[in-house]
Amino acid sequence: MATAPMKCEQVGTRPYDFILAFQEDNIGIIQLNRPQKLNAISLDLMKELVDCLEWMDQSDDIRCIVLTGNEKAFAAGADIEQMAKASTVDMLLLDQFERWDRIRKIHTPIIAAVSGYALGGGCELAMTCDMIVASETARFGQPEVNIGVIPGAGGTQRLTRAVGKARAMELVLTGRMFSAEEALDWGLINQIAPVELYLDTAKELAKTIASKPPVAVRLGKEAIMKAFDTTIEGGLDFERKAFYLLFASEDKQEGMNAFIEKRSPVFKGR
Amino acid sequence: MTAMTYETLLVELKASGVLQVLLNRPDKLNAFNDTLSFELIDVLKQAEKNPEVRCVLLTGAGRGFCAGQDLQSRSFSQNDSERPHLGESIRNRYMPIILKLRTLEKPVVCAVNGVAAGAGASLALACDYRLASEHASFIQSFIKVGLVPDSGACSLLPRLVGLGRAMDLMMTGRKVSAQEALDMGMINQLLPSEELMEKAMAFSQELASGPTKAYGLLKRAVNKAMDTDLASYLSYEADLQEIAGRTDDFKEGVMAFVEKRTPVFQGQ
Q1: In the sheet where A139-141 sits, what is the strand order?
Q2: C-beta atoms surrounding B85 within 10 Å
Q3: B45-99 pLDDT, tens digit each
């Protein structure tokens, strides 16, 4: 029950201690692997995760990434024992969230496959991904207020953008957990699947995306991300330039030719 | 599971995989007080976790099945200056029991040995299969004390007996005999009292030797079907069949069918 066995081959030469990395066809799968700690996000785990994401991002064979935990927990927040003794200056100097910012720079689409607890940093990690597929048993929440702080890894910003001000206020100020069904209703997540199938469902979505022309996928992701930190004018401008840019790609030519010739396209990633 | 001792329940896990849960406040017709509610929640959680449990059989000690909320228990006593917070009581005590009975992915059988009133009747309604003796009776007693039927009665009873009958029973609070309950489809079997436990156990054993995972998925499917549109349900059903198709028990079921023998299910 704790750690769902993966059918795919393990990849990478790096000896990770807190994550497992796999490749299946042309998707990468990263599994957080601290089951006895409900995958609490320690500094070391985050270091390995970012390293692995950047490595997969560089790989030509990996065109979409699935990030998952286990049935019981996607990730249950940060290591509170580590933080209990820390002062302001300790936290500032440590600047642990700097590493989280690097996830934003990943070009390859990332899908979080969430089952069980996604709390605090775990919820924020899921929201840092581009899409979320959840099991029926998933429980999300930003409970930081209960221990005298607030979300520190993007929770107030990403949750608000996803579910709106009123709901984000309620969730962050009460710290209450919310269900997969609520998350789906509010547009925070993409799909819900039975717990036995959530990983398969996420992998299926990843494989569909991986089958699309990678340059278009990359620019599509970039343009959508722009929507979060620019004006509509700037965003439209960016979109238009990216659209024009794709006319220089071989895959655009192949895609349009195949459409006209009524056959399936064969994309090369150029 | 061996270490489970309760104040208001007698719990025994049989070698067959049947977890027998006896509501055990016979002098109060097994009415719910706080302890009974929380112990029942606990035992259902244990039943969910323990893979050796493959069926739950619920029944009552003495001459009653369950008389519902114990109105003399402290949390319900009241005087003019202090009104009880029944909402809280429902959320903390009854809602978890009813939800767990419906979502527990193992069959839950109920042997109604005597009166099942109020939340006690609801408890029986939330089980998957009901056997009753001629001493059993069912009373939607809530309206008699000015309350709304609780513990899922308004959701479950109309589905079992139809809206018209359910409204009759809930508005009048009249007592329904075991025979009438059988006739209206509220219970599955009516048995002479001396045979009730033996038959209920035999039936539970049969379920306990069945494809447990498939029973669980079946309950999930029915729960979904009760609150969704056909198209969404059918898509969900496809997912559940995908899961069932991957089980060892399905493999065994098909093999046994082909080999013309009785399947031996492991519950996986």
Answers
A1: A73-76, A117-119, A139-141, A178-179
A2: 11
A3: 999 999 999 999 999 999 999 999 998 876 565 566 677 888 888 999 999 999 9
Domain extents for chain B?
2-208, 212-258
What pLDDT, on a 0 to 100 scale, did the predictor assign at position B77? 58
pLDDT of residue A81 exceeding 60 = yes
What number is the average pLDDT over the span A68-85? 89
Residues of B in contact with A193 (CB under 8 A): 239
Q: Is the pLDDT of residue B1 over 60?
A: no
d(CA B238, CA A269): 34
Looking at A69, A121, A122, A154, which residue is catalytic?
Answer: A121
User: CB of A183 within 8 A of CB of A115?
Assistant: no
CA–CA separation, A74 and A261 (whole Å): 45
Share of chain B above pLDDT 90, in %: 90
Give the integer Cα–Cα distance in Å for B100 and B40. 10
Whole-angstrom distance, CA of residue B249 vs CA of residue A101: 47
Beta strands across the sheet bearing B175-177: B64-66, B115-117, B137-139, B175-177
Determine, for residues A197 and B220 on separate chains, whether the beta-carbon distance falls below 8 Å: no
- The class that CATH gives domain B2-208 is alpha beta
Instruction: Report how far Cα B46 is from the mean position of its chain's Cα atoms.
Output: 15
Residue of A nearest to B240 (CA): A194
pLDDT value for A150? 95
**Integer Cα distance of A76 and A79 in angstroms:** 9
Residue B171: partners with Cβ closer than 8 Å, 6 or more residues away: B143
How many other CB atoms sit within 10 Å of the CB of residue A26? 17
Q: Which of A133, A195, A196, A203 to mutate to test the interface with B (most CBs of B within 10 A)?
A: A196
Tens of pLDDT, residue by residue over B190-204, are: 999 999 999 999 999
What is the reported pLDDT for A14?
A: 63
Residue A136's CB is within 10 A of a number of other CB atoms, namely 18
Does position A198 have pLDDT exceeding 80, yes or no? yes
A128-156 average pLDDT score: 96
Say which residue, A4 or A267, is predicted with more confidence: A267
Which CATH code fits B212-258? Answer: 1.10.12
Q: Could B243 and A193 be called an inter-chain contact, meaning their C-beta atoms sit closer than 8 Å?
A: no
The answer to whether residues A178 and A132 touch, using CB atoms and an 8 Å cutoff, is no
d(CA B261, CA A252): 59
